[in-house]
Amino acid sequence: MPVTVIVCVAAVICALTVLIAMKKSGKFFSALLLSVIEGTVALFAVNAAGTFTSVSLSVNWLTLASGAVFGVAGIAANLIANIIIR
């Protein structure tokens, strides 16, 4: 089994876990909205700071989705993965 399939399955399991936790909190839509806002703001803040630090992330569906579901932790994971891949 290729590594990309394993990583995709793990990402889906993590996303479902986060969404189930939001649902069980009783405030699903407010938690989801807050996560989407903070993840998107964090992504654009990283890119804005990238002009000074030379660390940036491309804005695509993967980074937006991970930021929307996981919030700041998703953007931090993207940054760590970006550093490891380089």
Molecular structure report:
The radius of gyration is 14 Å and the shape is flat. The two termini are 24 Å apart. Helix 1 packs across helix 2, helix 2 packs across helix 3 and helix 2 packs parallel to helix 4. With 86 residues, it is an all-alpha fold. 84% of the residues lie in helices and 0% in strands. The model has no long low-confidence stretch (mean pLDDT 87).
Helix percentage? over 70%
Give the overall form. Answer: flat
Rg (C-alpha, Å): 14 Å
Task: State the end-to-end CA separation.
Answer: 24 Å
Order of helices and strands: HHHH
Keywords:
86 residues, mainly alpha, 4 helices, 0% strand
Concise synopsis of the structure shown:
The protein is mainly alpha-helical and 86 residues long. Helices cover 84% and strands 0% of the residues. The chain is flat, with a radius of gyration of 14 Å.
Fold topology:
Elements: H1 3-24, H2 28-53, H3 61-70, H4 72-85
